[in-house]
Amino acid sequence: MTKNELKSFLDFKAKQYENSSFILDDPILIPKQYAQKKDIEITGLITATFSWGNRKSIIKSGKKLNEIFDYNPTAFVSDYQGKKTELKLLQQFVHRTFNFEDLDFFIRSLNRIYTRYESLESIFHGSDTFEKIDNFRDVFLSTKHGEKSIKHLPNVQKGSAAKRINMMLRWFCRDNSPVDFGIWKTISKSELLLPLDVHTGNVSRKLGLLKRNQNDRKAVEEITARLKEMNADDPVKYDFALFGIGAYEKEFTKD
After folding, report:
1. Nearest Cα to 217, choosing from 124, 140, 169, 155?
2. Beta bridge partners of 95
3. Mean pLDDT of all residues in the chain?
4. If you average pLDDT over residues 164-172, what whole number do you get?
5. How far is residue 240's CA from residue 139's CA, in Å, rounded to a whole number?
6. CA proximity to 164, closest of 120, 220, 125
7. Mean pLDDT across the stretch 137-163?
8. Strands 98-99 vs 94-95: parallel, antiparallel or unpaired
9. CB-based contacts of 180: which residues, under 8 Å, 6+ apart?
10. pLDDT for the residue 1
11. pLDDT in tens, 34-52
12. Alpha carbon distance 103, 149 (integer Å)
């Protein structure tokens, strides 16, 4: 395909997949249960963090998270003290390697952050999106934590693609979308980075958008730069196209 043909194709696929029906089978379904900003932030961050593996399994775990929160995440986080009764409740939760100890840390860190800031948005600051993710990580880890929990927060300084946090940023920052929330205003959608995973990476390489073999920070920079050539104002809208093709159009991804 020529550059113009590729843009037309991806625009068509982005429009095909970015609709309300996408929500039903996607982890964004979990924060979509809420209307208040903090509720969305809390469930959005935690759900995005354990979003790897089968999407049905992720959604099942997200629903369990909502049950633990008694469908009031803000109140749960605000009142949380790490008591034995609370920890016993958290012990009901596990998603792959993300277990109750990690959940306890995330809730304690969120509790601490919300005593200082009105929104998680306030700790995403810096000259570019990678720096904003790095600053978020530093603030989040300033709460006491075990070594195991560190791996759930991406280290972009060491080359992480930060897929799950970039997905969360897409959720929170893209406005005028039938899927994403658009509740954060200090990060423009033009600044967002592609949430690069196996699906989007493989499809991007098939389409000639990505040459790098590893799904790492450099690959995110490369693919996002290419997508900006097609839409500088909203490059990550193509996440819907690339993921949708990879997840649903198996004939396209065959060798």
Report:
1. 155
2. 98
3. 96
4. 98
5. 30
6. 220
7. 97
8. antiparallel
9. 28, 170, 171, 172, 173, 174
10. 84
11. 999 999 999 999 999 999 9
12. 9
Query: Tokens 């699906």 correspond to what residue?
Result: 199
Residue whose pair of structure tokens reads 């209307």 in the numeric block: 35
Residue 181 tokens read as: 């929330």
- Residue 189 belongs to what domain range? 3-253
Task: Tell me the one-letter amino acid at 20.
Answer: S
Report DSSP letters for 138-170, one per residue: HHHTTS---HHHHTTS--GGGT---HHHHHHHH
pTM of the model: 0.96
Q: What angle do CA 165, 172, 50 make, to 5 degrees?
A: 35
Spatial CA neighbour of 162 closest among 202, 211, 124: 124
* Domains of the chain: total: 1
Which two structure tokens, joined as six digits, stand for 22? 């996408």
Smallest Cα–Cα separation from 29: which of 16, 40, 18?
40
pLDDT at residue 250, as a whole number: 75
119: alpha, beta or left, given left = phi > 0 and alpha = psi -120 to 50?
beta
